[in-house]
Batch of 2 targets.
Target 1
Amino acid sequence: MSLSRKNDFPVFAQFPDMVYLDSAATAQKPAAVIEAEAAYYREANANPLRGLYDLSVRATDAYENAREAVRGFIGAASAKEIVFTRNATESLNLIAYSFGRAELCANDEILVAISEHHSNMLPWQMLARETGARLRYLECDSSGIYTEEALRAALTPHTKIFAIAQISNVFGRIQPIAEFAEICHENGTLIVCDGAQSVPHIPVDVQALNVDFLAFSGHKMFAPMGIGVLYGKEALLQKMPPFLYGGEMIEYVTREGAEYAELPHKFEAGTVNVGGAVGLHAAIGYIRSVGFAEIMQREDALTALSVEQMRRIPHIQIIGGDDPAAHHGIVTFAVEGVHPHDIAAIFDADGIAVRAGHHCAQPLHQHLGVPSTARMSLAFYNDEQDIEKFVNTLKTVRRRMGFAG
Amino acid sequence: MSLSRKNDFPVFAQFPDMVYLDSAATAQKPAAVIEAEAAYYREANANPLRGLYDLSVRATDAYENAREAVRGFIGAASAKEIVFTRNATESLNLIAYSFGRAELCANDEILVAISEHHSNMLPWQMLARETGARLRYLECDSSGIYTEEALRAALTPHTKIFAIAQISNVFGRIQPIAEFAEICHENGTLIVCDGAQSVPHIPVDVQALNVDFLAFSGHKMFAPMGIGVLYGKEALLQKMPPFLYGGEMIEYVTREGAEYAELPHKFEAGTVNVGGAVGLHAAIGYIRSVGFAEIMQREDALTALSVEQMRRIPHIQIIGGDDPAAHHGIVTFAVEGVHPHDIAAIFDADGIAVRAGHHCAQPLHQHLGVPSTARMSLAFYNDEQDIEKFVNTLKTVRRRMGFAG
Amino acid sequence: MPDNFYDEVLIDHNLHPQHLHGLPGATCSHAGMNPSCGDEITLHLTVQDGVIADGAFTGVGCAVSQASADIMLDLIIGRTVEEARALTALFRKMIAGDITPEELEQLEEAGALQNIARMPARVKCALLSWRTLEHLLEPDAENAV
Amino acid sequence: MPDNFYDEVLIDHNLHPQHLHGLPGATCSHAGMNPSCGDEITLHLTVQDGVIADGAFTGVGCAVSQASADIMLDLIIGRTVEEARALTALFRKMIAGDITPEELEQLEEAGALQNIARMPARVKCALLSWRTLEHLLEPDAENAV
Ligand SMILES: Cc1ncc(COP(=O)(O)O)c(C=O)c1O
Ligand SMILES: Cc1ncc(COP(=O)(O)O)c(C=O)c1O
């Protein structure tokens, strides 16, 4: 494996002994990102868009260059298709509030994968309540597999939307989104793809996948918190009504109403987060400089190492099965007889950050019949030593809870 | 006047000759704020709230300490009343979407001050369209004054909401919000106060004002972009439905629906912006360290200096009148025969940042009968030299546009 | 077991809870929940003449919440409702970190949970059964004593 | 006036526009708008036998948009519709920054707007009247030639 990337991340200098295995919750930030945002505030901070002076032109350029970088990163056809939001959650709500309320009615159906994060489930529950549309779930097997047949069978002439994550934050399995998109489109159904866990870790090309919408968060891809993205096909975004209303998203306002600005500004009400966008731009630059070849090679190797070690430990169950290739940087697990909160506490005592609970996927946990689980999730800044420490602690968990072995 | 504060702001070291007079659009950031956010990412970055490990506890503490700082800063009774949003615009949309759609119906009326920023007007237009409620405007005179009599006369038994800014971003006049609140409450009307231009510049105490909601943005108060605040009285927030749906705002989710988390988390869906909140906390600390006594003394003196100089220049009209005391750091003006965009371009050529256009207040401009205006707005980091340069350029505008004098 | 993660008492009550079972003759029951953790404990009491004659709990949860419930039942069975209320107040005081050594003694084995406050995310777990008890002992609660 | 901010030509056309008036016999008119600036220009043309016999504009705007409209009308009055279309294309080329010196010459006084591209916010202003003209000259536009 090539050189460790830990040195690029100041948090690991601050806490040299920490093992951070919660990157699916939020990623750590490289110095390049932290510095890019700070530099923006030192050198180009102004309210962009309406700027008639030099600093404001700089801010506008910084913001629109970031948008262009995102466009290129996910292979969108036009920068008009890139809307900056706060996070993936807001992106998904935007679709439900704007597209959903305008286009759905009581006869329609929304199909949601049962493994979805609450952020790709509750907005659809809300939409169903508001429009009277019927919400249905597509179920996976215990490995997190959705078959094309099951999808075909679940789609009806009334299905307007199918919502699914490219990578679930519990299973870590990559779903065949392009194939699902084709099946949906044959049926006249739009596909909303939650890319929160995929965009940071694998190359994502919206045109190759042919998804109608893609939502993701900056903070999971080494960018600052508070910036996210909604990609939507231009024709769809074009006809959607605005979501948030206010400054900067209008062409003209009278007492009676308003004409809205062109894409993508129509969906960016109020003063935008230029600092966050600049940070995201820097994060994309950083990811490109490492390269997905290295990122994937490293993450897959560490995932395989983890799964292989874990499946040798007795009383451990890996959610989604023991095949290393099915887990992309995410390994969710249970330890027989030990509650996940106790597992996390034990890891914490050893300086290892893992997550415990339902991982914002309660319906999936109900579906799988486990109330909660523990999860380790990694990024390319992790190394073999991190995995070794993780495995060593995992081996002690039952003993430290008083079990004989 | 005491020592200049310019040295606290790195942007002025970067551009020593720049005169920044667009602080009402966005404020510059002191090194303390830039550094606080960077330090968070170096030393405490994690996904908060569900954290079961040390770093996540740090992040949670950082976030909740910021909330407590905001609570103290605006004198709210409880931290539950402080909801972090992206900006004032989102805060106002949250009220309209959540409170408005749940509580208003076709018989109701919404009263909006005609001088409002689009962000405190378009959400109410949207709400009126969605609910059938009637939108009415309260009109001001050419000085930006709203009288108590006019407010009383405009309120009807059907008026559910009165929306007004404490300081308009065009006039700069402080409105008697406490008096207006009392009149509203006597009528059973809620008052929504837009504090975007007041919270950064004057002490604001929500309990003394007795407003029902207060919205403001971090970026106008020296904090990073991408963080804003909604204050709401606990009893109101308590009964409001959620706005955005997703992770972190729930107690329990099933296939059918969800139980929502306690205040304020109910309104904070998805991964929160801890970095932004930390920056806002630092900004509050910085404001406190300067003190409102100095801030107001300095800003009022610079405003008075500007207005006094400006009114001596021929062919200049100050929107809202020539009384320096009526303009709190905001002086909007017209130059006879010269379009505001040309004014701004001339200032830019001299290294002075001012704004031109409708300042997101088109209905006000229609009301005043001017299509657009120029605006200078200041903060305590400005100094007399800035004002001098501004006035000197202003004197040349007509000549440089080819007028005889 | 030299390197138990939690206090010996806690580990033991979690592994071998005495009171984790149904209670057929219960005069009152109440389900308490930490929804965000998924912890759920139903507390069953048999109260006669103002005395907690018997008690038990059912449900799932982490070691802290399970042990806390078991220890609590050990402590309150045989006590009057008044005494149980006082102990609940003491337990909250301990968690808040302002208990005297004399008071701590009254809590007997529940003192093993004293250090849980250093893990803020776990305080809710420790309190779950006590909150549920408080609810049952409230004079005007549904299904109350 | 030694220190004019804009080019002399632009200043002059803004202060003393020749074509800022109504046009009673106009064969076509169209209102162009830069809503975010509040600039609004209505262009009026009298087109006979494929030739722009006369033209005028009404409306308000900044110096750049006003002068641009006046200069444009100077240039296109008396030209054929075809020629006007070609000039519009050249003007856009100039704003985009890839015009040859020979082409620039054809634009006559409109060349004074060449440097507006360094003020991105003002490009829209310079283009307003030209966009409006394009619309009027489109074969299938409503109210078109
Ligand atoms: C009075 C007023 N209200 C609301 C806003 C909107 O603030 P933001 O753009 O930060 O949401 C502004 C600033 O643009 C303002 O001046
Ligand atoms: C699969 C998935 N979707 C959506 C989200 C929501 O992202 P955010 O909280 O940044 O809005 C997450 C992360 O929490 C996730 O893992």
Target 2
Amino acid sequence: GGDGDTAVASGESGDPIKIGVVGASEDYWKIFTDLAAEEGIDVELVNFTDYTQPNPALSQGQLDLNQFQHLQYLAAYNVANDDDLTPIGATAIYPLALYSKEHASLEDIPEGAEIAIPNDETNQARALLVLQDAGLLTLENGGDSTSLPSDIVAEESKVTVTPVAAEQTAVALNSVDASIINNDFVADAGLEPEDALYQDQADSPAARPYINVWVARSGEEDNETFQRLVELYHTAEVEEASSQASGGTAVFTDNPADELQGILDEIEGNLAAQG
Amino acid sequence: MNRDWSTLGPILLESVRETLYMVSITIGVGGFLGLVFGVLLYATRKGNLLQNAVVFTVLNVAVNIVRPIPFIIFITAVGPLTLATIGTTIGNNAVIFAMSIMAAFVTARIVEQNLVATDPGVIEAARAMGASRLRIIVTVLIPEALAPLILGYTFLLIGIIDMSALAGYVGGGGLGNFAIVYGYQRFNWEVTFVTVLVIIAIVQLAQLLGNWFARKALHR
Amino acid sequence: MNRDWSTLGPILLESVRETLYMVSITIGVGGFLGLVFGVLLYATRKGNLLQNAVVFTVLNVAVNIVRPIPFIIFITAVGPLTLATIGTTIGNNAVIFAMSIMAAFVTARIVEQNLVATDPGVIEAARAMGASRLRIIVTVLIPEALAPLILGYTFLLIGIIDMSALAGYVGGGGLGNFAIVYGYQRFNWEVTFVTVLVIIAIVQLAQLLGNWFARKALHR
Amino acid sequence: MTSVISFRDATKVFGGGPDAVRAVDSVTLDIARGEIFGVIGYSGAGKSTLVRLINALETATSGQVIVDGQDVTTLREAELRKVRAGIGMIFQQFNLMNSRTVAGNVGYPLKVAGWSKQDRRRRVGELLEFVGLTDKARSYPAKLSGGQKQRVGIARALATSPSILLADEATSALDPDTTQDVLALLRRVNRELGVTIVVITHEMDVVRSIAHRVAVMEHGKVIEHGRAYDVFAAPRERATQRFVASTLQDRPSPDVLDRLRHRHPGRMITVTVREGDGYGTGDSRVDGVGGSGGSGVDVLAALRRHGVDGTIVFGGITEIDERPFGSLTVELTGDDAAIDALIADLRRATDVHDLGIGDAPSDRTTADVVGGSPPEASTGEGDEPDADPYGFAMDAIRRHGGPR
Amino acid sequence: MTSVISFRDATKVFGGGPDAVRAVDSVTLDIARGEIFGVIGYSGAGKSTLVRLINALETATSGQVIVDGQDVTTLREAELRKVRAGIGMIFQQFNLMNSRTVAGNVGYPLKVAGWSKQDRRRRVGELLEFVGLTDKARSYPAKLSGGQKQRVGIARALATSPSILLADEATSALDPDTTQDVLALLRRVNRELGVTIVVITHEMDVVRSIAHRVAVMEHGKVIEHGRAYDVFAAPRERATQRFVASTLQDRPSPDVLDRLRHRHPGRMITVTVREGDGYGTGDSRVDGVGGSGGSGVDVLAALRRHGVDGTIVFGGITEIDERPFGSLTVELTGDDAAIDALIADLRRATDVHDLGIGDAPSDRTTADVVGGSPPEASTGEGDEPDADPYGFAMDAIRRHGGPR
Ligand SMILES: Nc1ncnc2c1ncn2[C@@H]1O[C@H](COP(=O)(O)OP(=O)(O)OP(=O)(O)O)[C@@H](O)[C@H]1O
Ligand SMILES: Nc1ncnc2c1ncn2[C@@H]1O[C@H](COP(=O)(O)OP(=O)(O)OP(=O)(O)O)[C@@H](O)[C@H]1O
Ligand SMILES: [Mg+2]
Ligand SMILES: [Mg+2]
């Protein structure tokens, strides 16, 4: 896939630029599209409730851009589908954190506790890594970005995990000892980021696969309109709204496209090697 | 962070429109195809009007292949077909396409079920008059089973509304999606509640009509 | 990245077990409750055995309130009840709880539909013999409508398998979840395909049995 | 009063507004314990509805229906059950359960009545043997012929030996032989167990051979009722007369009469034969059961006395409620004056309808003239060979029974 | 050969294995164009199945069924449609469409036949008027009485003026008056339009008044067939004899006989009245239609000749296929030798069954003895007052008609 022949025109001819997102209801998207409109760029957001669809849709030319994933996810997609979607700009890193209603600190989490984690592939692996970092469990071979719950070494682990839909991790707090909750849902669920028992470090190199990116079809990295949109995201108004939506945990970043591509290539290489 | 209704109101309204659009086209297309499939499923059974083991087996298996596929997987699976037909695999029309196919197979079973209990004597009477099989199906079989069929289609309608909630998976809209995206995923229970209420109101209305028509059709 | 079947195989097997577990409990509990509700919906209608406008209206509305709620929202909405009953809102048992309630309401409509066409003369005959209304329901009404009811429950079974695919949302498992999480979400079409095949095989088997029993129950 | 079923101004209206049908209209009627009560009337007259009021399958719109001392219109379902358990019913449309075998259908009321499995099996066996369906015990109703279905319905109604039996056209689908067997059984359970039986029927055989009393319904009303013999022998209402005439079939219909005249050109008369119509005085013999007066011998004796030759060309003498009844159509040959004297003589004792002679018939039809009422014009039930045959315009079946 | 319907070794087996039912068993039969053909037989004998082979509602298991020159067992559905369009059928169970009004049901075959809406409306109006249901035109079948439903079925079958009419117990739910009207119509369409009619019935009236020929079925086989008069007047097969006897009801049944003896202690005989049974020689008058021999006058004449006094106590003379038939039961009083001579005399011309005298009955039953066959033991259809009344063990209805 990935050939741009079927691509919709990019803005000038009056056709809107279609951006696939997950969570178009967030306030910052409205600010973003308003800003774009001021610059004469007609943006149409296509909202998906499922991560699986926006990449194929982009690849098939039904979208011009998408912005919902981090590099890790993109790499997994590209490898699985032999695709070459390309990151054209970064947005932010969202730390993944552990929350609990029952326990005040990491140390309080008892032996045999049940932890809810997101069940989508990349967040799941990332959550397992976070838990491993927190010393709650041990993964076979140290774990990586494709680890599964079945990779947990039960004898060496303090807790068990239950994968649930990402948004359900917050709901599940009533039923489990603790949950790994995606940033998106933290604020909505009425949680305070500072209450997190543990979270991964956005500035560590280990977090680099989790840089969220704008993605386009290969060959369209240099589209100026696209570049302008990437920039618009980092205007103060948008960043502020976006930060608010993440409960202030978002760590904005604007790595250049080629650096992102480099990281992507590296991850894809690893994945392919494992495949 | 919770938008107020002045922002959400128009989106909600638009969602209502979208749902009605999706559901009516789906029930039209899927419902009609389902009627055809369902009648065939019934009529090609052994001992029935169009007895035909091959057609029955093929249909029976086909329906059972399509129906249990989880809908999000199904949407993706029919993607190439959707693309060829609708020109896109995302958005409401793509959802309608997938929903119509799924609805056709679901309806087939509902229709089949409702025809099974038809009095064979009445069909015989029509055969004895020299009515063609197609005519018998249209003017006897279906009218005789109309009351349960109407309830079946009411049931289907609700199933489709339910199914349309998944439209968001492929970038579609509608009430279900609105409730999930603006309400449920954002833990905004007020929005969820109001939206669900709207859905329920629509369903309730449909059911009222369905019950009323079914009662009319029963002629007892 | 694509795990081979030596890793996935056991999970798939476990998923089959989980699906069978979830589906059988749901069809047992939900199917039974649905039978009760469905019979009540039918029997409390005007002119029928237990004619009772209040019960009918309450049930009719209740069914219409529950049914159209998108299932993932419904799971969350009944969460407090689930917590109180099952002790947890996640995992298979929580899903079974929510599915059973939903299935009960869905079944209610299926059952109602299939009873509508029952010959009132037969019920009258039983009344004339002095049979109690409960006895008539159990020993006349249901047996008389058995063939369509069996098809209805087969239909329901498939619906429940379909519903169980959403178990993953709240930490449940099963085949549908396996197909989505290990296949679909990872773009692993081989896993998706194989899993869907397993689901279809189960459904096909259920349908075969259903058709066979329905044929037996028809007595024609 | 030993009446076991009493209707008191009972009315049943179906529907409402302009389409309302008064299926049963202010019926007041008593049915005594232990009698066999026939209900006759044209199709749609309200017979089935009337009987369904008894076990409250239909609830009366107004009035009372008292069964065994209880007004069933006021009973709650649970109380009704007890009443119904003592009432067997044979349905016009059979109403068999398609989901049960023949044995299952017949055993069902026994199950309801709480019989043990063993007793049920034995009883069902007896009943099926009685109705001749032993070898169909395990068949389902869909595979039975019409008459077989009806026999299952009969066996089912008799299963629990109810004290009241409601039989709605219980033998309509049966051959005459089987009908006789069923009637014999009904007569026996009535006589020996005192079972009260209400039979709806349009079959003369049934009324004739088992009914003690009959009610005639028309337009939802009971227009006439009384001892079966009396109603048949001397119907008062016009509808009853017509019904009796066409039921008995002992009088030649117009086309039959045409053929008779062809064969028998002489003067013809139809003489009613009725118990108690003593001809002359010293002639009538009376025995324990009832007078034999009015039976054929009197006609024969009269013929002899008047020197007239007679040929019996049509008619029948049968029994109603175990008493003789009928009519004979006789061709008379002899002196005209003697014939007139004979007729005058006969008329003093019974009803005589003078059919005249072939060339100058005194009237065309006898079928609707009963009990000496004056001849009337044909009501059109005969053939009209000149009428448009598939057009119907001229000989519509008159709507006798349908209430407004 | 003008036969319009021919069965050639036609067999229909339902089911398989040990439970197989040979509903129609190697029937070979021709039904001529323009005749009214009656099919009689006990319940379950295979009558309905036989008739359903004609319009191929059931397909023969083997053999041929030729209708209008075409073997319907070999036709494809599309070809069958044309054959069926010319055949009207009245169903035993009515088979009305519950989803259509009365008018809609009657109009349906017209719609199938492609009639215009206007013509349909007119025609339906006529038909409904004929069957007396004009005011029920817009009612649904569920709201009709049994007889009303049957009338709708009749109207529907007649709607397209078919050239063959199959009537399966077409009047079983009708009152006698309406039955007469329907029969008159059938007779008329047969006579004037040459419609071939096949009637299944157990009602004597129907056979008597309209059938030209009849076939008697038992166990799926046609055991006897011929002109209606011949079959009734001289039934050959045992089953036919029993059927005719119980159908005609012109002979006293055992319990009637008991009562008769009570009233009439003298010697009683039953004399068969049959066309063509010339009594003596010079006495029988013959006219264009048929001999009047054997009708009552001969008995009367014989009585006179032998100086015996007679009382007609039971019996009937009616018409079968428009010819007189029946029997008279007469009590004889007079010199014993004279009576014996009288009986011997009568026997030379017709069948006489000697019932003996009250104290020494020569046999108990006459019901199953027809045509002078020797008296046989009762088959048990009478009352047995001593038998366990709800026990049935002793008087099961014999399974006459059910094939194995
Ligand atoms: N579909 C069927 N399957 C099995 N057996 C059947 C079926 N239809 C009829 N039979 C059997 O075939 C025999 C003949 O049935 P049929 O209906 O022809 O009888 P019939 O002479 O019309 O009797 P009736 O006077 O009672 O209507 C019966 O024993 C009946 O049980
Ligand atoms: N459920 C109903 N709704 C409306 N009208 C009805 C209903 N049941 C019966 N009727 C009407 O009531 C009248 C009496 O019906 P009923 O069945 O008592 O007649 P019947 O005397 O038994 O006639 P038949 O001899 O034809 O069975 C008919 O005109 C019929 O159409
Ligand atoms: Mg009736
Ligand atoms: Mg039959």
